[in-house]
């Protein structure tokens, strides 16, 4: 199955065959996340949470239900979400006095409590997060892990005394994404400031990480929002500042999408044989496969047991597959499942007192000593990840192009690229150009590169020809 | 605040003052779990999950919603839960074709998928779990962490080829509780087989861990259920056995309650000053408090910075409280918050090149050297936990009594004890005696001690005087 030829087919195939997600659960848009995926997602959650903790955040847990009256308090927010809410109106045999929303996001649950928790300047900054699920009645076509009605994510909610404090948080959110999504997980992305017409309902500005998937469409994998004082005013989240005056806090919220990050991970690193899991994140890091021949089963099992012991003593997650299947069957199975390192144990290895390590990505073999197997395996695992990561990042870099001409943009989009174009405006008045891109090119303006001060050399918008104020990035999207 | 005098008042006080739970969220029975509690609950979740993993379980994630038709498939099950279900009937502006239950427990979500996942004997045993939340429209008076409408727990769902396999799982579930709840967290409990009239809806038998709280009432903190083939038949969870025959699997499910375990933890270990967190689980393990005097601030801060550096290098979670409050205020605050170890840094300590460690439980001081502070702190933390744990377990042992007489049982219950009595029957025919215990003593039959073969010496039931077949334990409960 070639992911570059028909990514959609490959994606469906891998989710099913590698036992990652089961779409047969009988509620549309609510697939089951199976152990082979969820055990990796758990590790991704932990990595992200640890990085949030290191940056001064603390975990909390808010209810999954939000009273309708809370949700209605910020006008733009409810307008943005009202079509997406699952409503609870009954409990047991009783009709509830006020109906409850299954949270589509938690601002309106959390901020009434922040109003109670924050009093003085010493309560700020307040940087909290929760990990878990939100629910949105998505009306577009659903796709497992990518567009679902039950979303696995983390949401942070931060309050600051000043606008500058909140702005610094946006930069920190970007840095956390670069560390965890970029460096640790090896998923390349561009970090955009979204156009005004594409921001989070209730936010002043939205920033987002987009990763270009193998089919040339971008996937939004994390967003962070400058909420300004749009929520602190209706929810009365105030503090008395050191000057004795009562002020509204400045807020940000940040939502890295755990299932989308996982989807990007398997999509960037998978191949025609199956998934390729990162050594650090794989549920099983090494599979040991015996090559029985004639009567040598006890001899092989014994030698393999020695390898397994050494691996486990070194906290390497290893599995000995001594099932009744053929070696070839086992190779295929574990390559499909993406185990990064395979060790083959046959008569020849035993006689030479050697161990053969096979890399999942290149299927190259490397012979090593029994004494150094633990070190060599983890070395090989890291080396393999770095090698693949370089290729994935190189690929992303090569997929960014530029253009100043409508037809040319279309051609490059067809090649699966993200196109940098001179653009008139990210404000609402830019909408006509946005509409043209949408209608004629079936693409979207993803925004300007956050933190870039670069100004267009050509002063003309690639779409309308009027004055261009910035570079915008155009891409097809999920 | 004395927890033994008025536990209920103490419990309310500690949840509020130590900033553990906020009951002001505007949906009844849905309190907010604040960072100072949730960061510890997260560690408890991890400890439990790691132990499940070590025992061959894997994590998964099922949807939070269950179609009504699934829920209706096992007759006793739906009867037991129908009054407790929150129903989703609308999404956005649309009425759903089939209404969805917010899961009150996940058997009827999971088992239709198990029917698809299990085919042959090689698919068994299947041992999976998920961590998260279930929702029950509790009609009794709610109490934060203990009786709520949104429940934090882990649920395991295991399938076996034989009844013996399932029975062995119940024993493993008990052992996991003993390791994590008992040894690691230091919460004493008795593990009962519940009477027939008190089992999980749809189970053959229910087993449960009860911990005796400081007010003499027992709190159920984990349950495990022998489901037999009661679910595998309606949900058609079948496998072809090695004899070629198609058979229904045998099932168990296990639910340790994370928020109840946390409630038991703070209740057993708290005192009149506040919480006492375990060294291993505390969000902050050591608080360093400077004792400024005159102009020595820089000197003290400098010395404290050295201590902080050593602690952090040794991965000890330490916090330097150099806020503007008095030392006395800080002592009270961090004792309330339950930080196990305090280090006081004053002029005297600096001159002697010493460090003063203060234990949270006894408030005893111990002087140590700067070079050995990391080791001494973690030693002190462990020692303190073991000392407290011995007392807590001793207290539990002393609270188990026996009796063969109704009046005497009542007196002992009033003293906050669990009473072992000869009892006629745990089957449904025992219900009249159970009713008497309930009506006259305001207590419950919690069951027989699981794994105990002990038979009553007195052959007469303490309640009805008829033949006694076993020892039952009677207690007041939450």
Task: Report what the structure shows.
The structure is a homodimer of 478-residue chains. Chain A folds into 3 domains: 263 residues, Bira Bifunctional Protein, Domain 2 (BirA Bifunctional Protein, domain 2), CATH 3.30.930.10; 99 residues, 3-Layer(aba) Sandwich (Rossmann fold), CATH 3.40.50; 78 residues, Translation Initiation Factor IF3, CATH 3.30.110. Chain A is 35% helix and 27% strand. The radius of gyration of chain A is 26 Å and the shape is globular. In chain A, helix 8 links the parallel strand 15 and strand 16. The model of chain A has no long low-confidence stretch (mean pLDDT 95). The first copy, chain A, has a 5-stranded mixed beta barrel. A 5-stranded mixed sheet of chain A has the order 16-15-17-18-19, with helices on both faces. Chain A is of the alpha+beta class. Chains A and B meet through strand 2, helix 2, strand 3, strand 5 and strand 6 of A and strand 2, helix 2, strand 3, strand 5 and strand 6 of B. Strand 5 of chain A pairs antiparallel with strand 5 of chain B.
Could you name the key traits of this structure?
13 helices; five-stranded mixed sheet; homodimer; Rossmann fold; alpha+beta; 3 domains; 478 residues; Translation Initiation Factor IF3; BirA Bifunctional Protein, domain 2; five-stranded mixed β-barrel
Give the gist of this structure.
The structure is a homodimer of 478-residue chains. By secondary structure, chain A is α+β, with helices and mostly antiparallel strands.
Q: What percent of residues of chain A adopt helix (DSSP H or I)?
A: 25-40%
* Oligomer class: homodimer
Q: Summarize model confidence as the mean pLDDT of chain A.
A: 95
State the strand order across the main sheet of chain A: 9-10-11-23-22
Q: N- to C-terminal separation of chain A? A: 21 Å
């Amino acid at each position: 199955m070639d992911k570059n030829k028909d990514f959609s087919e490959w994606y469906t195939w891998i989710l099913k065959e590698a036992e990652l997600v089961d779409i047969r659960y009988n509620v549309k848009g609510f697939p089951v996340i199976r152990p082979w995926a969820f055990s990796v997602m758990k590790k991704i959650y932990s990595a992200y949470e640890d990085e949030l903790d290191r940056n001064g955040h603390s975990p909390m847990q808010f209810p999954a239900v939000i009273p309708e009256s809370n949700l209605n308090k910020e006008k733009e927010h409810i307008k943005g979400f009202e079509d997406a809410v699952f409503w609870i109106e009954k409990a047991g045999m009783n009709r509830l006095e006020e109906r409850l929303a299954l949270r589509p996001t938690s601002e309106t649950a959390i901020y009434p409590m922040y109003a109670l928790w924050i009093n003085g300047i010493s309560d700020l900054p307040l940087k909290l997060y929760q990990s878990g699920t939100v629910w949105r009645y998505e009306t577009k076509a659903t796709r497992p892990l990518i567009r679902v009605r039950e979303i696995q994510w983390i949401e942070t909610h931060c309050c600051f005394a000043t606008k500058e404090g909140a702005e610094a948080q946006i930069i920190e959110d970007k840095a956390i994404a670069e560390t965890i999504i970029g460096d640790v997980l090896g998923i390349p992305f561009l970090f955009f400031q979204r156009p005004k017409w594409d921001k989070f309902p209730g936010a002043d500005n939205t920033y987002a990480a987009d990763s270009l998937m193998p089919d040339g469409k971008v996937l939004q994998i994390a967003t962070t929002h400058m909420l300004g004082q749009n929520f602190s005013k209706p929810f009365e989240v105030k503090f008395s500042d050191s000057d004795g005056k009562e002020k509204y806090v400045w807020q940000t919220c940040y939502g890295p999408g755990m299932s989308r990050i996982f989807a990007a991970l398997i999509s960037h690193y998978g191949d025609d044989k199956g998934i390729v899991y990162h050594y650090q994140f794989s549920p099983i890091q090494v599979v040991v496969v015996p090559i029985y021949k004639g009567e040598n089963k006890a001899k092989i099992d014994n030698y393999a047991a020695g390898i397994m012991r050494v691996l486990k003593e070194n906290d390497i997650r290893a599995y000995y597959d001594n099932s009744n299947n053929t070696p070839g069957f086992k190779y295929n199975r574990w390559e499909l499942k993406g185990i990064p390192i395979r060790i083959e144990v046959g008569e020849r290895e035993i006689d030479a007192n050697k161990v053969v390590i096979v890399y999942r990505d290149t299927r190259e073999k490397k012979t090593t000593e029994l004494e150094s197997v633990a070190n060599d395996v983890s070395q090989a695992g890291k080396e393999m990840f770095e090698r693949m990561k370089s290729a994935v990042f190189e690929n992303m870099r090569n997929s960014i192009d530029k253009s100043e001409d409508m037809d040319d943009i279309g051609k490059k989009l067809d090649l699966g690229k993200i196109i940098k174009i001179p653009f008139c405006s990210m404000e609402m008045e830019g909408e006509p150009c946005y509409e043209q891109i949408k209608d004629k090119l079936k693409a979207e303006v993803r925004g300007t590169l956050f933190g870039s001060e670069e100004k267009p050399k050509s002063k003309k918008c690639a779409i309308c020809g009027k004055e261009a104020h910035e570079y915008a990035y155009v891409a097809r999207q999920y």
